[in-house]
Design goal:
Shape: globular
Largest sheet: 7 strands, parallel
Number of strands: 14
Order of helices and strands: EHEEHEHHEHEEHEEEHEEHEEHH
Helix content: 25-40%
Bound molecules: uridine-5'-diphosphate-4-deoxy-4-fluoro-alpha-D-galactose
Strand order of the largest sheet: 3-2-1-4-5-6-11
CATH topology of the domain at 10-179 and 231-261: Rossmann fold
Strand content: 15-25%
Structural class: alpha/beta
CATH class of the domain at 10-179 and 231-261: Alpha Beta
């Protein structure tokens, strides 16, 4: 590991007080990068930003703040996590998603170009694929989002591609699959109000915070009828950002769009069975109707990221992911930080 003084510039992490962003901050600091976090704290937490990172409270759409922060801290690259991320909410309030994800990103990218930032890592999503015809799904599959969330992210991918062709900036768009778990050292985890993600809900049920877990449909064309997803540990995902950043610096004329997943799927029932074992309880399941817009199976073809980056999964273990999520949930409740 190199010391911060050997790094050529600092990294701006937008949304660094949020779930995935805060893990990326830890990974960058662990790798010796100086870090500045830009976050509105609308959904993030000031306590989630480590003391070793500088903190600026503000909006990525505020080009003055971004320009001043880049100049003041000698920012050379941006990791952009800030945005809205609830698929269901995006259907009811699409303008929020085109504002927070697309328009705000456009402003941030404009400020980055104006300030001479050369590298940009973007938090994209498997939701850009919509209902894939083939799984595992590769990056060259058609991108046909089925909700405004996925479309708002896909539009930003297109903005980045056009900007990278016209200006001296390269980018990595990382398409995340199902992110779960928490920092194995207990430094951060999923802390937002109103859990909607399966593993988060399962650990809330295991700690008594909710009575049961609803299974959203068991008549899908999958081995046990429930939805299949590619669950990736948030710390592996964070490491992928550091590797993508270092690849962008080493390959200034190239950009990258890559899936980040393990390439293996688990059904809802399999996840709940693992959660039972890890928590040593039987989580109550209730069969509920399908949730609108859920594909049956979403699994990454991760050939490209494995071929391009040195990144290798270190925590590809569903029980470990659930155990880390559970430890974080318990710590939140003990520290009174629970929502
Ligand atoms: N599920 C349940 N019960 C729950 C919650 C989820 O049965 O209480 C099921 C879902 O139907 C799905 C699976 O568990 O089959 C995973 O659902 P999540 O809500 O945890 O995650 P999604 O797959 O819906 O969402 C993820 C990302 C999104 C991204 C999307 C792409 O979190 O950001 O994949 O489809 F947009």
């Amino acid at each position: 590991m190199s010391s911060p003084t050997t790094k050529p510039f600092a990294i701006l992490v937008t949304g660094g007080a949020g779930y995935i962003g805060s893990h990326a901050v830890l990974a960058l600091l662990d790798a010796g990068w100086p870090v500045v976090v830009l976050d509105t704290l609308a959904t993030g937490f000031r306590w989630a930003v480590p003391d070793a990172a500088a903190f600026v409270q503000g909006d990525v759409a505020d080009m003055e703040i971004v320009g001043a922060t880049v100049a003041r801290h000698k920012i050379g690259a941006i990791l952009h996590f800030a945005g809205s991320l609830l698929v269901g909410e995006s259907v009811g309030d699409p303008l929020k998603y085109y504002r927070n994800n697309t328009a705000a990103s456009r402003s941030l990218i404009e400020a980055a170009v104006a300030a001479g930032v050369r590298h940009f890592v973007f938090s994209s999503t498997a939701a850009t694929y919509g209902m894939p015809e083939r799984v595992p799904v590769a990056e060259d599959a058609p991108t046909r989002p089925i909700n405004p969330y996925g479309m708002s992210k896909l539009m930003t991918e297109h903005i980045l591609a056009d900007v990278a062709a016209a200006h001296p900036l390269n980018y990595a768009a990382l398409r995340y699959f199902n992110v779960a778990g928490a920092d194995p050292q207990g430094r951060s985890g999923q802390s937002v109000k109103g859990a909607t993600h399966l593993i988060h809900i399962a650990v809330e049920a295991a700690t008594g915070k909710r009575g049961h877990v609803g299974i959203y449909g068991d008549d899908y064309a999958t081995p046990d009828g429930t939805g299949v997803r590619d669950y990736i540990h948030v710390s592996d995902l964070a490491d992928a950002h550091v590797d993508a950043l270092e690849w962008l610096i080493a390959n200034p004329r190239e950009s990258l769009t890559a899936n980040v997943g393990y390439g293996r799927g688990y059904s809802v029932r399999e996840v709940l069975d693992v959660a039972d074992r890890v928590t040593n309880r039987v989580i109550e399941r209730r069969l509920e109707p399908r949730r609108a817009g859920d594909p049956a199976i979403l699994v990454a073809d991760n050939t490209k990221i494995l071929a391009t980056l040195p990144w290798r999964p270190k925590r590809d273990d569903l029980a470990g992911i659930v155990a880390d999520a559970l430890a974080w949930e318990r710590a939140l409740q003990e520290r009174g930080l629970s929502r």
